[in-house]
Amino acid sequence: MLNNYYTIKAVAEYLNKLLQGYSIAEVYTQVKDKLYIEAVKHKEEKIIAVEFSVEKDLNYAAIKNNFTKARKNYANLFEEITDRNILSVELLNHDRIIKAVLEDNLEIVFTFFAGKSNCFILENSIVINAFKNRSELSGKNISEIIPGGTQNSKSSSAANIAEYLKLNHRKFGAVYWKETLFRAGLKPEDIASESNIQKLLPELKTIEASLNDPKFLLYEKDQEAQMSLILLKHLSNEYSSFDNINELINRYLRFNYTINKTVGLKDRKLKELSVKLGGVDKKITGLNIQLKHSEDSDEIRKQGDFILQNLHAITKGSKTILYDNTDTQKELKLKENLTPVENAQLYFEKYKKQKASVNILRSKIAGIEKEKSNILNEIETVKKMEEYKTLEKQEKKSVEDKKDETSKFRKFRLNESYEVWVGRDSRSNDELTTRHTSPNDLWFHVRGASGSHTVLKTGNRKDSVDKVVITKAAAIAAYYSKARNSSNVPVAYCEKKYVKKKKGFKEGSVVMEREKVIFVRPSLPEVNHA
Asked: Whole-angstrom Cα distance, residue 362 to residue 368?
């Protein structure tokens, strides 16, 4: 509707009333596909700016209030019309073309044709400058460039009513065609019979009369807005009314800008969540592969049993033995420096480790599946969001969450009262211990093996922590250590105030005082990430 014939006609009439007595101050562009013409009324020292957009879906001319020129990244244009007085503004050829007549036989011509809109500077009808394709168009008569116009072509060879309107009443445009059909009680697919055309003609005449004495209305619903210069009976939703065409266009542009921002923000958020979802799926796939491998641990036990059953066939120094099971025949590797019994024991140890990791992996998969479910729920929530402010608020929260310094730690919720935080590397271990742990929090570390610093957040409670909670926290510390695959791991713990980092210690190194030791099986809690 921005470049509808009747909209352009109303714009021309508005600019004609407003710009007489003004002269061109300067012309420039500072945004792609937009031209700005500043005009000044010298006696009043009043400056106004006309914004002309040649964007494919936003082709318009409008006065912009409170407009300021950028301090840099702009290009001055059309110096040949600077200081020229504006004599009048009118439609050219009764078409979607506005002509501003200047003194000294100069004219500014704005065309409003989808994909082909442009602004020309004419001298005696010859193009001397253009916003787009200057070198190609300079020197041509304007009549060689602009199309034939939107005058009705009077054709009766239409297959249906919709086609009849397009052929015979082009300047009305899609919205007013739809309104005409609604008022006449016809459908677009109805045949273009003489009786149906006779139903249309009175409505067309009434609508045209209304368009020539326009109202300035904006119908808004959800994420759609419809400009109109008449009351639209086919739209039942409420409308806003404006004093002139310029106010209507600017309100529509603000609405459109907000919708585009909303859609853009929604698209960015959904893309971000999609990437996050892909990462989670990748983790789940990897863990399931590990789980399948670990669930095959019975085969390793059978191989250990096979070695014991065939001790007589193995001598110390043997590198392999042929494993002949009902389903499998392959060579089992043996260590040359071990006895047959010791080799069997290696297989049994491997079996125990893989067996133990099954529950750990299942717990981890369950936690990540929950994370995936949360992401999917968030995606559905974002898809349903229509308000820009709501989306903006969520994005700000997301940014704040990313800025959260503690997000670098693994976090586990044990129950309503306790959380466990775990470092990821030497640097985060140091930060967790020295900056994000309170004196009464419990600090854990595996004895005799390297691992992550682990902290049970007590909330500075003075009462003693339940042994079950301590055991769960110690199991997490064991899981994030080199002793993960052991079945019984010693974990030392004490209150953080007894953990000291002495001068000269390397990153991640501390000493403990008053520590206690608990033996645990490495595992993660069923209720996973906090």
From this structure: 10
H or E segment at 238?
none
- Measured CA to CA, the distance from residue 209 to residue 516 in angstroms comes to 93
* Confidence band for 471, pLDDT divided at 50, 70 and 90: very high
Backbone angles phi, psi at 277, to 5 degrees: -65, -40
Q: Which CATH class is domain 276-403?
A: mainly alpha
Q: Is 222 helix (H, G, I), strand (E, B) or coil?
A: coil
Residues near 439 by Cβ (< 8 Å), separated by ≥ 6?
Answer: 460, 495, 496, 497
Closest CA to 19 of 118, 110, 123, 138: 110
Delimit the domains of the chain by residue range: 5-144, 161-241, 276-403, 405-520
How far does the chain reach from its first CA to its final CA, in angstroms?
52
Show the tokens assigned to 518. Answer: 């608990």
Q: Are 84 and 24 in contact (CB under 8 A)?
A: yes
Contact 496, 509 (CB under 8 A): no
Per-residue pLDDT at 389: 58
Average pLDDT estimate for 406-430: 90
The span from the CA of 434 to the CA of 233, in Å, is 70
Burial of residue 292, with CB atoms counted within 10 A of its CB: 0-12 exposed, 13-18 middle, 19 or more buried: exposed
Going by their DSSP bridges, the two strands 499-500 and 511-512 should be labelled as: antiparallel
State if pTM tops 0.85. no
CATH number of 5-144: 2.30.310.10
CB-CB contact of 475 with 521 (8 Å): yes
Mean pLDDT of the chain: 88
Alpha-carbon gap, residue 457 to 525, rounded angstroms? 15
Residue 403: is it exposed, middle or buried by C-beta count within 10 angstroms (0-12/13-18/19+)?
Answer: exposed
- What is the β-pairing status of strands 106-111 and 410-413? unpaired
Q: What is the pLDDT of residues 69-92, one digit of tens each?
A: 888 889 999 999 999 999 999 999
- For residue 477 the two structure tokens come to 């510390």
